[in-house]
Amino acid sequence: MAGPAGTPPPTGARGFGIDVGGSGVKGAPVDLDAGTLIGERVRLPTSQPSTPDAVVKQVAEIVESFGWDGPIGVTVPAVVTHGVTRTAANIDGSWIGAEAENLLRETTGRAVTLVNDADAAGYAEAQFGAARDRSGTVLVTTLGTGIGTALIVDGRLIPNTELGHIEIDGADAEHRTSEAARDRENLSWEKWAKRLQRYYRTLEKLFWPDLFVVGGGVSKKAEKFLPLLDLRTPIVPAELRNEAGIVGAALLASGNDRRPG
């Protein structure tokens, strides 16, 4: 598979990010100083079944298509500790307990940094998106099939927070408050906002954040629900959209905080 034609030269240092999801595996080189993709990303439908061996081969295929030979950052919808995937959301259950980072290194022949997908997206927002140049504690939440979270304190990522699973009123928060729950129960924006209010108020009590950033596809309709929330913490929609995971993975793999300015 050939890489995208006409890819412009980078304007700064380069990295490479891959974002693994339940439906697609996406990757591209990243300008680490601008927080943007270099040219168009390549996307492959996620292999079914989405076992580690199958998906890792797809990651290698995307990296090879660009002729990239440097370090790569890879996201997965899973808790990752010491290179091992501890959970699996929307991917095959065989990821649980897999030595996924080592497998990626062996298959791609590159240095690999493996990270949780929400952590990567949140870190990108902190560096180049809605939380750029914000000090203190930033909580990024992605509202989708579940609720992904990323906690960034003074520009540093605190990984694997999994705050979509906190218990509120006797239930896992994401079961009642995710975008999927809104669709499943056919909730109005007003009724859904009441659940979001309870969720974000709980996070406020626990973390006293300086900023909330709301990602996920529903963030495109932020004007329909964010104004309905009454919080002490400013809350804003994410800015990097579908590129956030790729950008964040590349940034974290670079090992440097490249916050501009």
CATH class of the largest domain: Alpha Beta
Tell me the series of helices and strands, N- to C-terminal. EEEEHEEEHEHEEEEEHHHEEH
Distance between the termini: 38 Å
Low-confidence stretches: 1-10, 256-261
- Chain-averaged pLDDT: 93
Tally of helical segments: 7
- Label the structural class: alpha/beta
* Number of DSSP E strands: 15
Characterize the main sheet.
6 strands, mixed
CATH fold group of the largest domain: Nucleotidyltransferase, domain 5
Tell me, briefly, the overall form: globular
Q: Total domains, how many?
A: 2
Radius of gyration: 18 Å
β-sheet strand percentage: 15-25%
CATH architecture of the largest domain: 2-Layer Sandwich
Portion of residues in helices?
Answer: 25-40%
Please describe what this structure looks like.
The protein contains seven helices and 15 strands. It is an alpha/beta fold and 261 residues long. The protein has two domains: 14-119 and 243-254, ATPase, nucleotide binding domain (Nucleotidyltransferase, domain 5, 2-Layer Sandwich), CATH 3.30.420.40; 130-238, Nucleotidyltransferase, domain 5.
Brief write-up:
The chain is 29% helix and 25% strand. It has seven helices and 15 strands.
Give me some keywords for this one:
alpha/beta; 261 residues; 25% strand; 2 domains; 15 strands; globular; disordered C terminus; 6-stranded mixed beta sheet; 5-stranded mixed beta sheet; Nucleotidyltransferase, domain 5; 7 helices; single chain; disordered N terminus
